[in-house]
Backbone:
């Protein structure tokens, strides 16, 4: 064991599939370098499990650079662990101390059933996107971007909302399992821009309807989502969605 | 007569927009929160009147100004009508709160083993259901202390000295304790609820939201301090 390496105890949720009951399993993580990422620590543990003929821990990951949103882990009571504004893959082991016990759980929400261990099914987010998270345009050559002028502030606000990577940490953090931060970010990023304004009313109505059908809870404005979001998506988006939803419900000219 | 037919049709359509069980505004998560915010702010507006009138006891004139105010409230027809609205609003608020809390429980069937809620939100923002339930328990005691005797007096056309009733209740230490618990629950319910209501109604603005948040904090503290001072000063005999 090289200097500064740590020995940790992991308490990890193991669950075969969504229809079985899960339980916690305890693992030793020995000789962990403080420079490893949290996922690399899991890789080390899994290597050891595989070489001793045991089943590795299933977890989601892809880009490992904070942009895909796959690495869902609820670490010591917080989504993506103890640091603000990052995903699990960006969390380093130097955030822990030698001898620590770390409890790792999957996102827990009725709308995110466990696939296996720490991996959850977030296709409910995909269905919300299919319900309205798009603009209908004819394909063909891309138009000149400066054809439609967009105020700088609108472009910036839309861009901030578009930073959402769909990780689901907002749902995981919320005591109500509400998906309002995610949905509002997606509603905002489109409705703030001229191309998205055209379908604004249908979009917000359909996306909220789908969100409710998926079984997410109701927002009580605790702000946990904003605090835990790796992309610092703002609660202002939720208020924007609330007003758009109100407006669309009462003014949409359809029976 | 003929023009009434399209009118009722329009109302039917509006009713459907709001109330339809499947697609109505109020059946959606956002609509429910909207009603929660509206009824919450309505109750806040009532608090303003309630605390103002009750503060008449601080004139310390043996309850003369306070009783005059209470008497006006008990007999004014406008206030009588508003009272019905107040009860309706309160019931709606409680009903919605129950519905939301139950749905939110269902949204997380398996609880977390470890939750570090303090890292991302205030304890009272996560405890609105419990704080509200404490308020409800308090309201039962509160209404039976004051509202019921006043109603009986009005019904029997007898004289009723509300100020004297207040002194009687607050001579007992356990009522003072119950009222203080009620006021503290209200304080924390409002510390979150006041600004939360604006967010639920979609009112979030770079300039005004900081103002709303500060107003909410000061409003909660001032109203609750005044309410808390009433049982305390009466118990201690400062208000005679
Ligand atoms: C009597 C029993 C009561 C119960 C059970 C209750 C319960 C609740 C619950 C569960 C919420 C939702 C939590 C949230 O949105 O964060 C809430 C919100 C609120 N309550 Fe109450 N409450 C009660 C009485 C009151 C009273 C007396 C007032 C005011 C004087 C009040 C003012 C508010 C406000 C302003 C909100 C915020 C609405 C929003 O966030 O949209 N509540 N209440
Ligand atoms: S809003 Fe933030 S926490 Fe929620 S899905 Fe998007 S990036 Fe993740
Ligand atoms: S693995 Fe892509 S964000 Fe963490």
Residues:
């Amino acid at each position: 064991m090289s200097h500064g390496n740590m020995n940790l105890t992991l308490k990890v949720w193991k669950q075969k599939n969504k229809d079985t009951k899960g339980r916690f399993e305890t693992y030793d993580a020995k000789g962990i370098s403080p420079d490893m990422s949290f996922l690399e620590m899991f890789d080390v543990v899994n290597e050891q499990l595989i070489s001793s003929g045991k089943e590795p821990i299933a977890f989601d990951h892809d880009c490992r650079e904070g942009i895909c949103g796959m690495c869902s882990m609820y670490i010591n009571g917080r989504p993506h662990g103890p640091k603000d504004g990052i995903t699990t893959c960006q969390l380093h082991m130097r955030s822990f101390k030698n001898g620590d016990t770390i409890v790792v759980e999957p996102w827990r929400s009725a709308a995110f059933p466990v696939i296996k261990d720490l991996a959850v099914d977030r296709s409910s987010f995909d269905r919300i996107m299919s319900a309205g998270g798009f603009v209908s345009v004819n394909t063909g050559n891309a138009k000149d971007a400066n054809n439609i002028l967009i105020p700088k502030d609108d472009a910036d606000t839309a861009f901030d909302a578009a930073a959402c990577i769909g990780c689901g940490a907002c749902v995981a953090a919320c005591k109500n399992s509400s998906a309002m931060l995610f949905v509002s970010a997606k509603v905002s990023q489109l409705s703030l821009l001229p191309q998205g304004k055209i379908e604004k009313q249908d979009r917000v109505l359909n996306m909220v309807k789908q969100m409710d059908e998926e079984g997410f809870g109701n927002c009580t404005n605790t702000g946990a989502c904003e605090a835990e979001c790796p992309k610092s998506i703002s609660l202002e988006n939720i208020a924007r969605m609330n007003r758009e939803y109100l407006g669309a419900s009462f003014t949409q000219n359809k029976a | 007569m003929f023009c009434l037919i399209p009118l009722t049709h329009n109302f039917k359509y509006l009713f459907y927009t709001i109330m339809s069980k499947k697609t109505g505004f109020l059946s959606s998560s956002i609509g429910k929160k909207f009603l929660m915010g509206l009824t919450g702010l309505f109750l806040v507006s009532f608090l303003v009147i309630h605390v103002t009138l009750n503060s008449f006891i601080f004139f310390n004139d043996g309850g003369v100004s306070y009783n005059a105010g209470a008497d006006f409230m008990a007999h004014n027809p406008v206030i009588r009508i508003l009272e019905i609205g107040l009860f309706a609003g309160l019931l709606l608020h409680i009903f919605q709160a129950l519905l939301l809390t139950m749905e939110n429980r269902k949204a997380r069937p398996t609880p977390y083993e470890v939750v570090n809620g303090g890292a991302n939100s205030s304890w009272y923002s996560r405890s609105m259901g419990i704080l509200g339930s404490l308020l409800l328990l308090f309201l039962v005691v509160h209404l039976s202390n004051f509202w019921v005797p006043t109603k009986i007096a009005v019904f029997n056309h007898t004289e009723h000295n509300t100020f004297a009733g207040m002194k009687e209740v607050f001579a007992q230490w356990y009522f003072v304790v119950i009222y203080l618990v009620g006021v503290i629950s209200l304080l924390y319910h409002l510390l979150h609820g006041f600004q939360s209501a604006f967010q639920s109604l979609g009112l979030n603005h770079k300039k005004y939201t900081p103002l709303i948040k500060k107003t909410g904090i000061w409003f909660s503290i001032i109203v609750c301090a005044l309410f808390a001072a009433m049982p305390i000063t009466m118990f201690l005999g400062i208000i005679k």
In short: Chain B touches chain A through 43 residues (CB under 8 Å). The radius of gyration of chain B is 21 Å. Chain B has a mean pLDDT of 92.
